[in-house]
Records
---
Amino acid sequence: MTESRRLSMLFIGFLLAAAVIGAGPYLLDTYSVNVLTRSLLYAAVALTVDLLWGYLGILTFGQSVFFAAGAYAAGLVFTHMDFTPGNAALALGLGVGGALLTAAIVGWLAFWHGASALYASVITLVLPIVATQLLYTGGEFTGSSSGLSGFTSFDISMEGWFWLAGGFLVCVTTLAVLFVQSDAGRLLVAVRENEQRCKYLGLDTSRLKITVYLACAVIGAVAGYLYAGYAMVVAPELAGFVFGTELVIWTALGGRGTLLGPVIGTLIVDYESAQLSGDYPFVWQLIIGVVFVLVIVAFPRGLLPVVADVPRRLFRSFLKRPARPVASVRLSTLDPALTQGEAPGDGPALAVEGVARRFGSLTVLDGIDFAARAGELVSLVGPNGAGKTTLMRCIADGAERSSGRIVVNGHDIGRRPPEACVALGVGRKFQMANVFETLTVAQCLQIARVRHARPSLWRRAGELHLPESAMHVIATTGLDRQLGTPAHLLSHGMKQALELAMVLALEPRVLLLDEPTAGLTKTERMQIGAILIDLARRQGLCVLLVEHDLDFVREISSRVIVLHQGRIVLDGSVEEVVNSELVKQVYAGSGHAGIQHQAAGREEVTP
Amino acid sequence: MIAQGLDIVTTAAILYAVATGLLLVFGVMKIINFAHGGLMTLGGYAALVTTQMGLNPWLAIPAAALFGGVAGMAIERFAVRPLYGRPLDAILATWGLSIILGQLITIGFGRGVQFTRSPLEGTLDLLGESYSAWRLALVPIAVVLGLGLTALLQGTRLGLETRAVIMNEDLARGLGINSGLVRFLTFTLGSALAAVAGALITPLSSVDPNMGVPWLVNAFMLVLVSGASLFSLALSCLVLGGAQVLVSTYLSPVLGGLTIAVLAAVLLRIRPQGFARD
Amino acid sequence: MPRIAPFRRPLSRRGLLAAGALTAGLAVLGLPALAADAITIGIPVGLSGANSVVAPSVVQAAELAVEEINAKGGILGRPVKLEVADDASGAAGAQKAFDSLIFQKKVDVLISMETSAARNAGLPIVNRGKVPYIYTSFYEGRSCSPYMYVNAWVPDQQVAPIVDFFNGKGAKTYFLIGSDYAFGRGMLSFTKSYIEKTGGKVVGDEYAPMDATDWTAILSKVKAANPDAIITSTAGGAPNVTLTKQLRAAGIKALYGNLAVDEGTAKSMGGDAEGIYIAGSYFTNIDSPANKAFLAAMEKKFGADLKTPNDLSVPEYEAVYAYKAAVEKAGTTAADKVIPALAEVSVEGPRGTIIMNKQRHAPLTMYLGQVQADGSVKTISSFKNVDPGEQCPKLK
């Protein structure tokens, strides 16, 4: 689908939805208009749950709090001050401001570098509990358990509110669809799929999460503000954990990661519950619980995709449509003058000074000292558990080492997280190919370029500019003919090549490669070898390579460092190392060396 | 002062009893069992049935363990195991199951508040304070629980295998440990412990379909700050439970109710490993 | 969004009961059963959630009133029927219930026992739908709407009997314990000012979160303060009974007045409830012909399924009669005529004579009782026509 076709489809969808909302009050009875007005606003909040959970992978139980922030701002202002247009604007400002402040605090608590998804979820669970308690304890100011009621609000008819709520939902949904399909929106999926790779591509994933979280808080607050204006009542349960989890249930039932699913799910379940729960209150809850568990276990994508598949399957048997043509992206090479940056200075590209890494009482690296210049291709060799991968990690992530100093291009990396190390010029390729499995080759490369080319919030770029080195890898390996292929369909060798191209797209000065040839065929290995030599000699990169295959090392390295039991035992030319008795001993005696070292390194192996 | 000390120690004991089952499941399976509250409620109703049948109230504890264990087996088999690779979904599934559990209990026993007989009635005089006997009894019970679990983990082959799975599941599997079985047994044991905790708190509170819910979040936070160690759990129960008692006493019980959750969240932000050693 | 067809539901059990009552009533009169003629009373109530324990008794009371009225020819010759809707004891559920009753079922009046949150959420919808609304639950007071009347007690009526009695027993120092919610705060702040006005001293007032069931820290403070009397006003259900149990387990022996316990709960608590003082506008043992007839009729109608009538269900029963009287006085069900009439009519019910003529609230006879060892409540004294005080000065 071309970009203009995508946008016009979306616009048609927007017009259709707007027409349905416009016609609603003429087709529905008063009762349905009333119930649906609230459901429409709830659906807007469910949409934010989907953005966070379905796209970004943050399971959140606390979106109710932002809804309540908007609602309570209106309730409090209209109760304790008069209702005037000025105060109405003030209330909206307070609601959005309060939601933003809350989201910023929660974001700070939940989305820091290294926090697990589970931890973030539990924090969002604590949020509504704290918020409800604060509302209860507010006495007459917040109305405590009774909430606030009887305040004056906008003088708008019931139909007017329906249109307002529906219009808001349609706009927010359209914008959300536009966003998640855009280049910037794809980052959400990338973070969900493989946050570690994102960080090592220089993306500040914590900031991305907080930004999306803040935006979702604003949507929730506006929905809540409209709710209070319409319902003329606010109650603590709006902020509650039960409402928060209901939003998750609606999202799961409708279909996470579809945007439309949660919206439709909310409208149907909330509307039906108004009908059914009156007659069978407990059984209704039980049914919802059972369906919810079934969906989670058996249909994790939710019900919308299942329902949508039915006509698609029927159609397919009638007209055998060919698979959708994949979005075409044109590749182009960036002017080398732009990507080379400044000429490498006289100092070393990489200096490692007295680096040590300890896990409790276990010392994995100790007293590592070496420096490497631009254009050098240094191989790190040593038996399993010698600390090679750990050393790579220490160079790429400032938080890893226990002591010592690492300088990249003249900058001390300090305690910087991986994304900041990338900014200093470090590019790291993992041992096992570490790419975004569900994204296409072109999309993976695009994400690697985000650091240099700010992605559009609503468009998909038709062109992808890559530095010469990355283009070289792509052209040599034939990846350029598979730009539309999802990464998980690539062969092992192709994935390795793709990851290398992604790392090169970062325009690194120091390239860290962890066994880039493991599991490759002889031909692939030779290709990679040639590329590496070219990178070091022609592009002037400083390449640090962990490698087991000594023949390969001999062919390409300009220098070899031998690690054994966490220390450098030899640092010299290829010849020196190959002929060293010490190295032979080290390898001969490596059988039982440090299984624990390997265990410590394992999580790195399977990202 | 003495009353406060007793409040802190007994509160920590109750929290410890409530959180151990959750800790075990978290350690082995790396998921937070949201059905924990529902299983506690189940244990409460096991105690209620014991009372209604006129049995010795102490029998509530094994009865609860049985109820909880069986429910745990079913949950593990049908909801948790299929979601092995999707931990967040496993959390949601356990949450859905606790809704189901709650509604089934409501339909079966009604929404009302009911009561069980306490194994120990009245007060005991201790250090010049007359103090609730059952609260005091919970301290040795929690200690026995902790020591028993430690013995199980340190002294048996199953315990060894469990510890191996906690440390590194892939490696454990590689060494021929049936990690699926370990997970199944752990979840069963964790569920039984949750139900036992439910039975243990009934003499202090009442039995109703939501009785487990207020404990849930505090238990989650205690487990998160404890890592996977029974010892650091005891430590965090004492420190955070103590903070809760002090805040409740000197500031307000409302803030006291939020103390554990908020302190734990901030603590984890500043020191990600919490009370665990590295 | 497709047009969603209104869900057609099978006749529910309550529907059947109401229909049965209706046909029975019409059969007596020999009138043709025309449902379109019926006057519909909407009952939003917490069938699920916090109020679900007491809700069935409220529905039963309303069902009896409707059956009796239909047996005697209905209101203005028209049969009466009930529409019950679950408000889930909260705001969101109440919005759905009120919307459904007012705009879908098109009820003529709403008569409900609900949580304050549910009532507040329903009021804007009542204002839009312009139907009369009788609120039949005791509450923290001062909720006002041009469409609403209240026939149950407020703090101004409930607190005095207990405090006066404790003062008479020589209590000087009081400790107040509540759940942190509108009712708990409202009751205890009134109690505090009343105690201070009558010469007592409040040595402590503490609130726990609304769902809290652990009262340890507060009880330790109570023991340290060693008051003559304790007055509690917690959320119903678990918080209330856990407080009582833990208070007893802690060995606290002070006079104990509980503003939130009803007879049924007291009975289920067993020995722990013994000696608690409670106040209310209705106990089952009120010795009046009206109450005895009411209890007998309830017993006859519901038999083994009977939920014990209480201070929340009896006002519901009386409110149905108040509406009947108001419609008959107005000669129509039109809201603008019925609403002023509601302030003028009086109902002779199990609680005595009730007129909602004090700023939309009613003066009530209040009773002080003490829970006995067997769980029954012994009436100690009664206070005639206790005034609700200033509730809605802006409304007549």
---
Amino acid sequence: MKVDLEHLEYLSKLKLPESEKEKFEADFVKILDFVDEITKLDLPEEDKKKATPLSELREDEVKEGEFCDTLSNAPKQKDGCFVTPLVVE
Amino acid sequence: METRFDKLSVRELADGIKKQKYKCEEVVRFFAKRCEESVKFNAIIEVFDDIFEKARLIDEKISRGEKLGKLAGVPVAIKDNILCKGKKMSCASKFMKDFVSPYSATIVKKLESEDAVIFARTNMDEFAMGGSTENTIYGPCKNAFDEKRVAGGSSGGSAVAVALGLCPVAIGTDTGGSIRQPSSFNGVVGIKPTYGTVSRYGIVAFASSTDQAGPITKTVEDNEFVLSILAGKDEHDMTTIDNDFSKAMVKKKYTVGLCKELVEKIKVLKEYPQFEKAVEKMKQEGFDYVEVSVPHILNSLACYYILTPAEAASNLARFDGVKYTSRSESARTLEDVYVKSRSEGFGKEVQRRIMLGNFVLSSGYFDAYYKKAKSLQQLLKKEFAKAFEKCDCILTPTTPGEAFEIGGKIKDPLAMYLEDLFTVPASIAGIPALSVPYAKGEHGLPLGLQFMGKERSEKVLYDIAKKFGGESYGI
Amino acid sequence: MEFDVVIGLEIHAELKTKTKVFCSCKNEFGAKPNANTCPVCTGMPGALPIINKHAVELCIKAGLCFGCTISEYAVMERKNYFYPDLAKAYQISQMVHPICVGGGIKLRSGKFMRLNRIHLEEDAGKLTHISRAVGTLVDYNRGGTPLIEIVTEPDFSTAEEVDEFLKRVRESLVYSGIADCKMEEGGMRCDVNLSLKPKGSKALGTRTEMKNLNSFKSVSRAIEYEIKRQKEILEDGGTIIQETRKWDDAKGKNLSMRTKEQAQDYRYFPDPDILPIAISKSDVAKIKATMPTLPQERRDRYVKVFGLPEYDAAILTSSKYVSDYFEKCTRIFDSPKKISNWIMVDLLKLVKEQEDFVFPIAEEDLCEIIKMVEERVINKTVGLQLMDAVIKSGKKPSALAKEMNLIATISEEQILSLLQKLKAENAKVSEDYKKQPQKVVGFIVGYVMKNTAGKANAELVKSLIEKVF
């Protein structure tokens, strides 16, 4: 099995140190080879799961009690906002 | 001589406080002292600094004659992935080491409303990924019976804390065995309840569709008592169910199932003689035996290592250096904030699972892996349901063996994953599974016996475990 | 070379709910940054989404507006990608089992524009880009507010068709109380997928997706521009790149948004935190019962049953309020044409340029005045004076008319005698009337009015003139 590590890093927003890539890939392939048994099984398609009736969903009512200080752990904040480096669109 | 509060049952402890046999403050002081004496085990990350204040409040309430809850003054330790407002919570990760919970988990509120003292947070594998409590920034948690061996994981700290008598109850979380395996390794009782029994609100998600919290205790009675408090439908968690298991019917005589697909795997274990003896003992005590089949049970592990990384990859994407995790100091651009913060913040195992999850979800692999695993999960549920038409529980060892040595498997992720062979099926099927200590292995370390039951059959599992007896492993 | 234009639309509309789609925070525009946020909509660890029933109901209602099939089984899925406005790094949306499937709108030309689906999803937060030194500010107030996405089939070939379609979508959503669709506030957004293919060819060309279209006008302009751009490239033998292009309304052109180095892969999968939703036939019936008659149906009725001109029907249905007002009047006083005239000529000018207006006079009072005029109790001029007085005083027209002494109290005999007097005194009037009656009627009416302090009923006077002269 060949793995496009670069693409996985991109999707995961992770960057492995160069020195660890080889071992990582080897372990990764070993795990994939292990789970690969599943691809060979002949299985029925998944049925629809148990669903919640529409009538039981949450009512559209404001609940003030559930607010909390959502900025309290922000690594950087300004004027009540979270801050990131300037996003270039 | 001071009272050995660690020798009391949870109910006795609360009753003693309520009846003013002793003060909550004494109880808290006793356990805090034990924590101090056991620092080397790395089970406890932090004993919360407001416990004496909380204890005094409880003592005052009692002296005023106020009615207190079922857990009056009982110190409860929580795994480091459970939010308690105003307290630190880190998931044993560098990424979250300074995080202070801005709200409380539903189970924390439930415990507090029964007047428990939220006592300490326990060590764990980072983001609950691992089976040894070695993947942690606080240092490996050591087995209560042998400091050279692992605690098991990911709720290793919780299991060791209870085993060492550092607290009467600790809450763990279990996604594929993270309560049961460390309970087994440390001679304590742990349950993974039916999926949806305990609210996940305020517990850091690893894999949403198999995560369940549950109590780790010294005895089956304590375990049942605490789970009855944690259980219940929660308006903050759509996946919770009404599982009032205490009202379930118990029987005089039970039928125990042995899963034929697992028997081959069990027979080759070093500790097979112990398991065989346990089966014999149960037969003598009047349990009926039947062979059952769960045809795809051996595929559970592969299913698990596809589904849970997939959900984890998505669940852990929110840890991005923007809102609450630490941010890489060298981050200059938005991409840096993401990539550097996450690469520096997450440990190796977490990164591996995120990548694995994104692999099975990615275009071109989704149908072959993720979709297939979902179909298998549904099939397994049906196969288990069918097996439980013939028996009240399925019996297995909780783990393939005793606690292994620290450092023994950490370098080989697949070997570590194979440790979950017996615990993962119940997680995938969403059924309850209880681990109780029953014997000792070749190195004198405890072994756990696992009882799996059909959905909402916790009461039956507890009843079977009580009838079985097992052995007690007080230290 | 001749080309066929192929256009498909993705329309987002913000739903009118009190709370967000997955938490109980307020869904409101313009609050202080992050004032309406909680653990759920800021993606805190441990937080779980709890779906808002009303948001699902409004999505179903939207489906009913456009003849969609309502699914009995709907699933929320996660669309995974990193962006600072997306707190959880995934958007909860729908993929395989959307709430509404199919449906469409028939344009004036008779062409039927098919919908692919309407699904429910959450909006993202707001980013404010300050400067390199300060950075970008993130406000999650809008994060987690409910949206519907209406996805069409690629059935459009002109900007005009798109414009008509969008206006029909908007009026239906607004009428049904589903969304306000204020395009300038971002309450309704439209992305345009467009491609060209050689005339008659079956195979589709490469498409581009255009974003940032903030008004109906910019949608039309952007389509015209993109058709021209693609045509020029193709005619020069070039190829179209599949990409997202951002419309710049000020410059009147679009620009490629930086193409990402790697292809997007959203890794959709069912959200394990949210159970699938079961929608029963009776749920749908209940929602259907709350649906108002949609504007197109109203217009058709106004023209066919009431005999109003298309133009008038269009103006009367320009808002549900005006249309409901009109219809209530017709139930009180069965004279739709007269009522339509009063509303179009006399009432709408009172509220000109206002948004969310309310007519300053109740339907019953307006009808009473129209009735008085029609029954010639008062003339139109007096009727307008009376309306003005009713608006100012809030009193009932009948009482006020008496109080102000507006009702014509001049009897037929009195008018007749005045006319006889005029005929006797002024022979020229009689002569002129015989030659060209219309030229002197005005003069005669004026004479009567002058001698009755304007209290004679002009219509009555006119009919009596015929008798006398």
